[in-house]
């Protein structure tokens, strides 16, 4: 085929059925789990004043290099959202819902990244945030919600956990780490040297091979007694729920706002370059960064595109949803009426267009994955009946009066 004139932008996909079907199921399962845990949905704008996002990660790649920013017709500097935690906090500060406030969201997010497997410029996230409490039970609740979601969809994940310390211990650690890295500045990669001047913590996240030895010898974070108690509480509560986790002191996350608990969900069957299917943590200083009141917060986001990649490997979710395919000869109007009636009874039904031959329609019925084919031919029409064929069972055909069809099908499909 000749190259079409227009293609989807680089790093952006069109998603067809059946992948879109699996995706929808996964999103529905997430929404159900969030509702079961008492979270209300928040629908946020796709773009915001750029300041909402730039405040939350001055030293991060997400803000420095990956923002889809633009000037609107009134010369306001805007950006497509690269994540939603900052938007949730902006909405909280603007509307002040009663705390503790628990919300969930889903939607497209945008980062100008180098596209590769599992890394896109438009990607879908689901997530939750809890604002207005620093109770470790909230940390445990969000982690267990994500764990339950991954379990429900059949995606194997490892939970990696760390504590980055509260606002104060984090600030002290930043100084210690800055001194250590500055002393070894000459040995660091050019990229790490640049990151060091912005945020020493992010150097720990360097993927450059030459930086690994320096990172492994770096001093470790010392938690204050309060932060240690908070972290111990989170771990204890996770253990009480039988949620397994591994500790990793080098887990720093890709955004600047994290304090105390930080965690990632790593898909056990994906390559290490794309295996983080989700992540989150506490951000007790974010509200003030955005000009709001003191307000603790904790949450996570899960990348749906990557989660689907992990599921593709295992094919855990079945996508076949069609119940009935109607084939007809000279009875298109009746076929349309029958399809409409069956759909009303929540029996998913299709029929073919273009008046094809019965043989061609039966081939389509087979390909469609439908459980049952109905034939509306001349003989059937004369007898006010319809032939019912169970496609997945060899030569199982019967003639059913049209008035009994709905009940007959419901019995067959529920058997
Ligand atoms: P994040 O780690 O930047 O955290 O993103 C969460 C997840 O989104 C990642 O683990 C990954 O699965 C997916 N993701 C990120 N970038 C891409 C991309 N370019 N292509 C495909 N998937 C991607 C956050 O966004 C925080 N707001 C999470 C959070 C919520 N922290 C506290 N509350």
Largest sheet: 8 strands, mixed
- Total of helices: 16
Bound molecules: histidyl-adenosine monophosphate
> Could you say which overall geometry the principal axes of the C-alpha atoms support?
elongated
Instruction: Tell me the structural class.
Output: alpha+beta
Low-confidence stretches: none
- Tally the beta strands: 16
- Quick check: average pLDDT? 93
| Oligomeric state | single chain
Strand content: 15-25%
**First-last Cα distance:** 46 Å
What spatial order of strands do you see in the largest sheet?
A: 1-5-6-11-10-9-7-8
Topology diagram in text:
Blueprint: H1 19-36, E1 40-41, E2 47-49, H2 50-54, H3 61-64, E3 69-71, E4 77-80, H4 85-95, E5 101-110, E6 122-131, H5 136-153, E7 157-163, H6 167-183, H7 190-198, H8 200-203, H9 212-216, H10 225-240, E8 246-247, E9 259-267, E10 276-282, H11 286-289, E11 297-303, H12 304-314, E12 324-328, H13 332-344, E13 349-351, H14 358-368, E14 372-376, H15 378-382, E15 385-390, E16 397-401, H16 405-414
Bound molecules: histidyl-adenosine monophosphate (HAM).
The site of histidyl-adenosine monophosphate has 26 residues, from strand 6, strand 10, strand 11 and helix 12.
Give a structural overview.
The mean pLDDT is 93. Strands 1-5-6-11-10-9-7-8 form an eight-stranded mixed beta sheet, with helices on both faces. The protein has a five-stranded mixed beta sheet with strand order 13-12-14-15-16, sandwiched between helices. With 415 residues, it is of the alpha+beta class. The protein has 16 helices and 16 strands. Bound molecules: histidyl-adenosine monophosphate (HAM). Histidyl-adenosine monophosphate binds next to strand 6, strand 10, strand 11 and helix 12.
């Amino acid at each position: 085929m000749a190259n079409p004139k227009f293609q989807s932008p680089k790093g952006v996909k069109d998603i067809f059925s059946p992948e879109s079907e699996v995706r929808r199921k996964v999103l529905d399962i997430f929404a159900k789990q969030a509702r079961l845990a008492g979270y209300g949905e928040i629908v946020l704008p796709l773009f915001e004043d750029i300041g909402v996002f730039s405040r939350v990660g001055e030293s991060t790649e997400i803000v420095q290099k990956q923002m889809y920013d633009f000037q609107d017709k009134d010369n306001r500097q805007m950006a497509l959202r690269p994540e939603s935690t900052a938007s949730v906090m902006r909405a909280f500060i603007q509307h002040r819902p009663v705390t503790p406030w628990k919300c969930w969201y889903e939607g497209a997010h945008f980062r100008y990244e180098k596209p590769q497997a599992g890394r896109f410029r438009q990607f879908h996230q689901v997530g939750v945030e809890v604002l207005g409490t620093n109770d470790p039970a909230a940390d445990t609740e969000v982690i267990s919600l994500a764990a339950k979601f991954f379990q429900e969809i059949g995606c194997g994940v490892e939970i990696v956990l760390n504590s980055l310390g509260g606002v104060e211990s984090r600030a002290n650690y930043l100084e210690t780490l800055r001194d250590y890295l500055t002393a070894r500045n000459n040995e660091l990669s050019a990229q790490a040297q640049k990151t060091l001047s912005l945020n020493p913590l992010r150097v720990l996240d360097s993927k450059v091979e030459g930086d690994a030895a320096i990172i492994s010898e770096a001093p470790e974070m010392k938690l204050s007694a309060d932060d240690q108690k908070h972290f111990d509480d989170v771990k204890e509560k996770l253990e009480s729920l039988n949620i397994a986790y591994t500790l990793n002191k080098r887990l720093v996350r890709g955004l600047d706002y994290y304090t105390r608990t930080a965690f990632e969900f790593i898909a056990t069957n994906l390559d290490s370059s794309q295996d983080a299917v989700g992540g989150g943590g506490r951000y007790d200083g974010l509200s003030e960064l955005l000009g709001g009141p003191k307000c603790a917060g904790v949450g996570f986001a899960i990348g749906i595109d990557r989660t689907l990649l992990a599921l593709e490997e295992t094919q855990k979710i079945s996508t076949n949803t069609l119940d009935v395919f109607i084939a007809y000869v000279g009875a298109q109007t009746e076929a349309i009426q029958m399809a409409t009636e069956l759909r009303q009874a929540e029996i998913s039904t299709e029929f073919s267009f273009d008046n094809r031959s019965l043989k061609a329609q039966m081939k389509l019925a087979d390909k469609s994955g439908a459980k049952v084919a109905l034939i509306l031919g001349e003989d059937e029409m004369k007898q006010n009946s319809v032939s019912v064929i169970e496609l997945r069972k060899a030569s199982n055909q019967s003639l059913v009066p049209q008035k009994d069809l709905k009940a007959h099908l419901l019995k067959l499909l529920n058997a």
